[in-house]
């Protein structure tokens, strides 16, 4: 059975593939039919994940899974949040987004740099599934003063993980998956599917 991964983000695909392995789906990458960024018009992570999953599923006639996620920084009232992918403007890469974040927090002391990653997952079990499976994950940490490490993607180099004393970009991929927002959301999804039988 095929499942479309409704994302263009290679970092997400690398993390989702091993997490979803227990389902035994053949994962089909989304090639040229993704939701354009401008069409991600939801006001919440869940709404955007629904838009992406529906679009992929309608386009292919296959089950689809979408991940909408982001980094919410308390001192910035939850920004970059829904705008995490393009915080520094259209076409911005991770380095530009991180530079903008560090600049915005330049005067904020260490004890006030709390943040969390959020992930909303939407699974359409079939193309017009009227009752999608929705799960979420939340990963607390804080924002470093400078980037550290080269693993992961996005904001990982500036996301400090207190229980391991390093940035998310310094964690082994399997360990990040064990504790991250995305890992939590996928495990919740697997449990719900198991409960459905
Ligand atoms: P798709 O919409 O194609 O899935 P995207 O990257 O545009 O890709 P989002 O709109 O959900 O996806 O934006 C998520 C952004 O949040 C992502 O680009 C990163 O900047 C950040 N992000 C999410 N999860 C992350 C993680 O595990 N580590 C670091 N940054 C993360």
Q: Provide the spatial order of strands within the biggest beta sheet.
A: 2-1-3-4-5-6-7
Number of helices: 5
Mean pLDDT reading:
95
Instruction: Spell out which ligands are present.
Output: inosine 5'-triphosphate
For the termini, the CA-CA separation is 17 Å
Rg calculated over all Cα atoms: 17 Å
Structural class: alpha/beta
Q: Domains counted in the coordinates: how many?
A: 1
Annotate the secondary structure layout.
Blueprint (H helix, E strand, L loop, with lengths): L1 E4 L4 H11 L5 E4 L15 H16 L3 E10 L20 H11 L9 E11 L8 E11 L15 E3 L4 E2 L5 H7 L1 H16 L1
The site of inosine 5'-triphosphate has 22 residues, from strand 3.
What can you tell me about this protein's structure?
With 197 residues, the chain is an alpha/beta fold. The protein has one domain (2-196): Maf protein. Helices cover 31% and strands 23% of the residues. The protein has helices at residues 10-20, 45-60, 94-104, 173-179, 181-196, and strands at 2-5, 26-29, 64-73, 114-124, 133-143, 159-161, 166-167. The protein has a 7-stranded mixed sheet with strand order 2-1-3-4-5-6-7. Helix 1 (10-20) packs parallel to helix 5 (181-196) and helix 4 crosses helix 5. It starts with a strand and ends with a helix. The mean pLDDT is 95. Inosine 5'-triphosphate is lined by residues 7-9, 12, 34, 52, 67-71, 84-85, 117, 152-156, 168, 180, 182.
